[in-house]
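Tutorial, part two.
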Amino acid sequence: MGKIIGIDLGTSNSAASTLVGGKPVIIQAAEGTSIGGKSFPSVVALSKDGQLMVGEPARRQMLSNPEGTVIAAKRKMGSDYKFKVFGKEYTPQQISSFILQKIKRDAEAFLGNTVDKAVITVPAYFNDNQRQATKDAGEIAGLEVVRIINEPTAASLAFGLDKVQKDLKIMVFDFGGGTLDVTIMEMGGGVFEVKSTSGDTQLGGTDMDSILIDYIVNEFKKQSGLDIKNDKAAMMRIREATEKAKIELSNIVTTEINLPFLAYDPSSGPKNFILTLTRSKLEELLRP
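Running the prediction step on this input gives:
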């Protein structure tokens, strides 16, 4: 009999879990944890010869293959948007299905059993089209999607599993890679009731990254006189360095972004970029 797993299909990273002996266990990707301790980067890449890479292998080759790499597909779910990769078009559902196939495959290897069913979480503010697109992606990946659950509801359920005898009112603040959800829930007698929910399906950590990327691009232009906004390889290097710096500044107050040979000036040769970034500067840039 196949196993059922729970999947958090995220904008930047995804995760999966299942019950083993009555306790939830996080499913590890075949490659282990990625940057920031995440399991499955939500990154899909295709090489020019058609090879498909998903998760950490796709993230690792982002710098050398920016044209073939797709990120943040979740933000386009439920829309008519098409990702164009080396002359071919892919729907957001297809890109998400590649991520779900990777999770299914690694879950089966991790558990030593087939996985044929899944519960997938979505932002509370996802509309019907976005929810159906998520379900379609699961079915393309070969999973029977038994339920679509709101992310804050799933978090509340996990929080309250061992508190069924208590009456609680809790707030779930879920600031993810691409979406923001805030939900107030009441819990009593093992029953969970959503009292209020709000959020923004177009606000998340990737927007913080974008602001920081713009700042770095402008600083590099001041230093070198070069505008690298249209240099895909350079921009991918900046994106990776930006995410790493943002994560580091959660634990330390100062970090250094060091990008040697970021661009080439025909008149003066290669250009390096070094910037010391403080947590206070990051907070200043991100202030509404």
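The first helix runs from residue 56 to 60. In part three we will examine how such features are distributed along the chain.
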